[in-house]
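Dear colleague,

Thank you for sharing your sequence with our group. We've completed the structure prediction you requested, and as agreed, I am returning the results in plain text so they can be pasted directly into your records. Please verify that the sequence below matches your submission; if there's any discrepancy, let me know and we will rerun it promptly.
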Amino acid sequence: MTNYPLTEKDGIKFIDLGIKGEIPLVLLHGLFGTASNFDRLIAEFSKERRILMPILPIFEMSLRKLSLGGLLEYVEDFIKVMKVEKFHLLGNSLGGHIALLYAIQHQDTLHSLTLTGSSGLYESSFGTSFPKREDYEYIRRKVSLTFYEPEMATKEMVDEVFDVVNNRSKAIRIVKTAKSAIRHNVEDQLSKIEVPTLLVWGEQDTITPKFVGEKFNELIIPSRLVMVDKCGHAPMLERPGQFNAALHSFLEDVEAETR
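Please find the predicted structure tokens below.
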């Protein structure tokens, strides 16, 4: 679900907010993620730049095409439709994985790359299998593992995941996408990334643990790692103040070098 106005163009649904004319920031959400995960980021950064976010069609894309490759192609089409020449790219979790694949293939279009809780090296995946559909408490516990503070897992979040579990078509799509992500390990391609990269990681992330952020930092040479204490898999949601401060500083540095 999203509280933002959705635009549709050439079959692609997206959010388009903020100030046009400045270098855009393109956001990619995760497997169970929604635009609301970026509320505080959007509120702050839309005051100074354009914010673009394609809604990944995990539940709409044909099952045959649904994969990381298919989702990457969707993002590529989105960039072409928007006629954006150069931009900052930010992805969380699965969105980070897609951002990595995009950066490896199209870094000439990027000013920078930001990853937070990204898959692509290792993840303790929630989406590759599901419990009995009626087990709401199990789903609540699993969703709460996304955060350092379990109470961050609101009833709305748990209900959304529970609804997916109880919809066979959606559950199949989640499992297929998660398995595709696990197959797409990018370790041997990370040395190709030459754009400035920011890594923001939760110290207590149990899905893509701390060592994953450290490994990305080691393998992506022009990268900066910011560890956020008392934080899980979604720093922009759980610790938005620290996340936004790190992103502000990074984007200012990147744009200062391009002037």
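Summary note from our side: The chain has a mean pLDDT of 93.

Kind regards,
the structure core
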